[in-house]
Amino acid sequence: MGSKIRLGIVYGGKSSEHEVSLRTALSVMNAINKDKYDILPIYVQMDGSWVKGKVTDQQLHSVDSLRLTNGTASASATNSELVTHAAVPTMNFGQELDVIFPVIHGPNGEDGTIQGLLELANIPYVGAGVMASAVGMDKWMMKNIFAQANLPQVKYVGLLRSQWEREAEAVYALIETQLGYPCFVKPANMGSSVGISKAKNRQELAAALELAAKFDRRLVVEQFVKARELEIGVLGNEQLLTSVVGEVIAAKEFYDYEAKYKGAGTELQIPANIPAEVSERIAELAKRAYAAIDGSGLSRIDFFWDEANNQVYINEVNTMPGFTPHSMYPMLFQAAGISYSELIDRLVKLAMERHEEKQRNIVAAENFE
Ligand SMILES: Nc1ncnc2c1ncn2[C@@H]1O[C@H](COP(=O)(O)OP(=O)(O)O)[C@@H](O)[C@H]1O
Ligand SMILES: [Mg+2]
To answer: 267: burial class by Cβ within 10 Å (0-12, 13-18, 19+)?
Structure first.
């Protein structure tokens, strides 16, 4: 040992958040301590093909230079090598790398798929495992688990697209009696507010369901809550550290994709201007939610605070939150005294610890006396 940690950064991905992932990867590569780490960029293209490269200083200046290609197209990609779809499973991660940081958001990235591949390859990786990632990506399943853990949340109805297509009237009636208007309709498996809309009457509900159903076969409808949006970071495997609480103040009617990523009128207030008692309650709920999904590494946990009634509701867990230095999660920990590069260090360490912990498990029965 004593030598540098060989860190692979897997980014891009077949996801609507491809671009965000590129930005995250660039930030991580820039911030990381180069005396401590050797970085191998691994780019997952939109079509699912993987390209690995050797990161050059020149590449660290723009997102576009991280779009590695087969060594034929751009100058920045001269050191890259195409790994075909079929070759991915046989890529010998373990020989080349000590740990992988998968910075892919959304479906096919933060949902357990890449985590599963890395489990098979038996290589330590940053962040949540397969189960926590999958649960954190599916709003319906996540809500069922929160309910089981007695976490306060807004009333919701989960349904399948086919159910709505088959018996629309019954679905409207169910939503109207269980939730009423206004309500929020969401595809269970998206992110960044894609496919989400608010419905104030049956006509809008039909349109909202039709939109959400374009993105997923699993749908969630929730009661609307007029509330402030508070977020907290959790860091750790079993011993959990929470950050300060931050607030997202959106100018638009709700915090949608544009507000989130194009900065259209969104303001982050860190720490949130709220009573200490509310922060404490949120930290407590956040740890319980994290444990309920068996989180590891990191998560940003989002809450609604209905100030008038002093009610806190959990909204969701994001197992791979935005992770540029200007994203909420790193800023929340920055405010708690942990810098961006230290955060990366800690995440790598947690990845290795979790991997080691898993090696304790007996795999084959014949090894058991
Ligand atoms: N039940 C709700 N009541 C009020 N606003 C909501 C509700 N659900 C979602 N929103 C608004 O929509 C935004 C996106 O919803 P969210 O479930 O967080 O999806 P995403 O995974 O895309 O972040 C929230 O940040 C919030 O502004
Ligand atoms: Mg959200």
So the answer is: exposed
